[in-house]
Amino acid sequence: MNNLDSSLQAHNKLEKETTNLVLLKDRVDKYHDLSTQMSSILTIFEKRLGNLEQTILPVYQETEQLQKRQQNLEATLNCLENVLSHYDVSQEVCQLIHQGPIEGSIGTFLDALAKLRAAMDYFLHNNSQSVELENVTSLFNNGCEGLNQHYSMLLKKHSAPLKPVELLDLIYIEDDSSSDEFTSFRQLSQSTREELFTISHWLEQNMREYTHIYATERGEVVLRSLQLLKDHQKSSSWGTEALRPRHSGRQNEPKKNTSARLQQIFEKKANKLYLRATQTIEQSTGFSIKKASSHTDHLTSEDLLDGDQELDKYLVMLLGLQRLLNWERAIMRDIIPQSKHNEVFARLAYNAIDLVVKDADAITQRILRCISRKEWTSALGIFSALKRVILLQPDIERTYDAAQREQLTKVLNKLQQTGAKALEHFLDVVKGESSTNIVGQSNVPKDATVHELTSNTIWFLEHLYEHFDVIGSILAQDVLYSTQLDTILMKKALPGEERNKALLAIYIKKALAELNLSIMNKCEQYNDQATKHLFRLNNIHYILKSLQRSNLIDLVTLAEPECEHSYLEMIRELKTSYQKTWSKMLSGIYSLEELPKPVGGKVKDKDRSVLKERFSNFNKDFEEACKIQRGISIPDVILREGIKRDNVEHILPNYNRFFEMYAGVQFSKNPDKYVKYRPHEINAMLSKLFDDSA
């Protein structure tokens, strides 16, 4: 049974596979027929495509050739039009060129010039002998000339010198860091600057000259601004009106004179320099620097605020020049190509700088004349101005190029030379006074008080200390002073600032030595010995007290450590010498042992004449001395009272002994004729010495 079932399953399976095989063969046949048909279709398509290619390819090639011909034709037409335009450009732009550029429409004119330039290039390379080249070249040159004239016209029209008050405000504003108000001084509007910029760059690209025009016009603005400021400085209102702010927000500030406002400006500069220096030192070393007293602290003294007005005016000119040129540099950046900045700025600034340099020469010549007349305030003004010019050096470094800095260095050199001449002339004057002793002519005070030369010398030396830094730099250039400084440095090391003080100390030492010699020589003009000593004593004492009061004694000690002791010793010796002038008067009453001894209130007849002579001589000498010395003045109270006390202590005890021994002796029928003064009267008369009203 099982075998039957297996055979049945196999038979069914065989039938099924046979059926599938028949179906497969049928489909294979169909696919074969389809492949044969497709192959036949593709063959036919290939043949037709080949036929189409043979038909279309000649057409395509012919079309491509036609397109090339068309492009060549168009290029030829364009070229012909371009060539024709070069021939027509003269007529096209002739009227515009002759009319010239119009402000605000410079682009149209520059386009016309560009066409002429292109025509010039075409004819130059293709037909250099043609009349058309001459026409377009002439028209182009006329156009460039017109452009230059327009350029100059724009600069003239929109440029004007600053009024003095505007320039003074410009000085004040820049130092007050008010950048918002700085823009109010812009003369050239933005549109004008843009037009000038366009013209400058076109002329630069076409190698046409324009820098001379710009430098001349803007240089004239700077020069005229300075000249107007000079004219304004001559007005009576200059001293109180100069450098006074005139903008909103500042009207409530009190008016300041020129020197005060200059002082404020230069103090700011000095503080900026100090701050920059300390920051550099602290960053590089890590050390914190505390501000020490320096020359800038002395700039606020009344003497400088009331200084030489001509120098103040010149410093304002110098500041004004710097501000104007900073202003011009800012304008130039908006107009002139970068490559031409240095050239234009050098031309622009030359005349203005030359004016300032020449003014410096004129002022220093005037000051030298003042110094020759012994007007020493002018000399101090030179040192103050020199100090301020030195403070301007960083601004000069930033503002000017090398040639201009060299030109302005003449100002600094001129001031230094004038300062050196002032110092030298002062010594010559003091030295010359020592030899001035014209026969029959006295130039010493009748009352033997402090001589004008002494007070003037001390006044000048006291004020020199305020400028020790610049004076030190001047003296350092003199080999005599530098050699003496080296001697001091061998004994004691000194920092930079102290070296300048030491150099000034050497100068003051020389001046005091010449002054002492002058005083010694002048005292010989007095006939009375006591007056000679009192004259020298007055002057030497005044010198010492002035040196002590002004602390100059500490400065002089750098060059002469024994200075104070030397003056004290001179004063002591002069007091001693003065007391010795009473010796002749006291010689007759000093030694009682040599005089006759009274017995019972009487002396011998032959001794009476001796006592009469001694009393008479004393009275005569004492009265004569009192008469002279009442007319002598000793201004210093302490010195005066001390000399009076010394006189009393020196004279009265001797006279007391003489008076007590002989006043009651009967040596004359008329004793009042000889015994004229009692001790208290001598004391009273001595107390009235040095008082002409007594």
Automatic annotation (TrEMBL):
Superkingdom of the source species: Eukaryota
Span of domain Exocyst complex subunit Exo70 C-terminal: 316-687
InterPro entries named among the record's database cross-references: Cullin_repeat-like_dom_sf (IPR016159), Exo70 (IPR004140), Exo70_C (IPR046364)
Region (Disordered): 237-259
UniProt keyword terms in alphabetical order: Exocytosis, Protein transport, Transport
Similarity comment: Belongs to the EXO70 family.
Function description: Component of the exocyst complex involved in the docking of exocytic vesicles with fusion sites on the plasma membrane.
Record-given protein name: Exocyst complex component 7
Organism: Drosophila arizonae
